[in-house]
Pescadillo homolog
Amino acid sequence: MPKHYRPPGKKKEGNAARYITRTKAVHYLQTSLSSFRKLCILKGIFPREPKKKVEGNHKTYYHMKDIAFLAHDPLIEKFRDIRAHKRKIKKALAKKNRDQANRLLSQQPKYKLDRLILERYPTFVDALRDLDDCLTMVHLFAALPAVEGERIQVERIHSCRRLSHQWQAFISRTHKLRKTFISVKGIYYQAEVEGQKITWLTPHALQQVLTDDVDFNVMLTFLEFYEALLGFVNFKLYHSINLNYPPILDPRLEALAAELYALSRYVATSYGAQPKNVQAIDSSQSDQTDAGKNETRPDESELRLAQLQHQLPANEPGALMQMVEDATSKEDDDDDETKECKYLFKDMKFFLSREVPRESLLFVIPAFGGVVSWHGDGSPFSEADEDIMYQIVDRPVQGHLFLSREYIQPQWVYDCVNARMILPTEPYAVGRIPPPHLSPFVDNEVEGYVPEYAETIKRLKASAKEQVLPLPGAGSDELDNSQNLLVEGIIDRAEAIEAEEKKRKLSMLEKQYRDELNMEFKGINYSASLPNRGSSDDNVVEEDTTTTNLEQIAEDAQNRSKISMSRKKRKIYEAMQISKERKKANVDLLKERKKKAEEQGRTR
């Protein structure tokens, strides 16, 4: 009899009872594989890895409790109704009954994901914690081409653009943005909402190509859930600052692809007066709007907006952000970090040239208190405005130069945001190679390598705060007695040996310098001083022996400590040492690259 023989009819136990394969789960739920996959994505159920795979290593396993949880979900009945409805449509088309097919198409069963979102995220903070992938997916589909006949519906792409702009408008005008970084993959952003740090990635504004090696059906299922989730999050955030959701946008600016700055007239009337500079912009643009209406006959929607013109504010771009700013300007309970971000670009006007990433800068600059405009229709002010302080360009040749402003590259804005200060503009001038773009998501002190430009930014911030920092390499801690450092536990043994080596070299150089001064004072020639070099060589040998003894003592102490450790702690200690070696190798690699780059720069 086999070892694991179970008589027929006997109850299953162990992993055989706790886990079920995907094929058996599909048969258990009486649904198709695509519906099962979609149901698992929407419900948040994922495969498991049991310690002992009863059916084999090449199969996918699920918890039996999860499958039983799916069997009682109302959504599975909706999927069955949709499947039966599609069969009816197919049958009507086969019988060439076009009227019945059209009637069935207009009566397709629909379902909502409100209940699923409440089940998966009982509190609003839970939803914010799981918003990273949601925002990345929505921004990815918002950048795809909206072309009819493709595998992705145009309505889905427009919905993603609308949701992403609503999220960016809230983050920008409430000054919740904290970090940003430009990489090869795209642009990383990090915001802090209700104490939760949310990081997402947006692709570059380039032509996207839909490849065949991606299963868009699975991605569209994730997108369906993420759209509903982001809609609920935006609803909660807008209502937290007393704003109606969704905002009513100006169709003219939407047609001009300025959705992020589109006007929400109905909501803006409920919140305070507008700033003076915005009112001046409104007065100039309202005249242009009236002139345009005299030339062309407005349709029904434009006529309805024109009827509200006398009681609503004039047409000004950026009202979606402006209405959020008006609602939040009354709140003075912002934390120190929010206030720092709010006044970074205060009273600064920026103008964007055609070649720079417009949508990213329209999101980042207002998030830190700046005012921005761009080339094209619907912009708040023109390029000839004399109050513009910075014009962001990304090409070496300019048609007309204004002496009252500075022309800088886009990297300057992102570096100022990460440094939380206004950096000098000379290194970012047009035609120059800008400084290295440092990632704010990397802790240089922990990694063990601090880039040179990071040190420069640190000293600029210290000088702005009127603090005095020690010169690099002149710290007195490294020159202290290494034995005292070991006793006090300030640094580890490796650093103590390195400090001892530095102290020894400095003492040798100082002794040699004093000897040469004495010989020069006594008038002794260089040839006469050569026989005395033997004693100095003996001293060097003695000092090398002392250093070797120190290293041997440290190694012996380390071995004794490892012997007294338990097996678990010893493994953890070895893993820590491996991690330190890898980090040191990475630092050495960065230093070598820096050295090569400096050598190449000298040869040029």
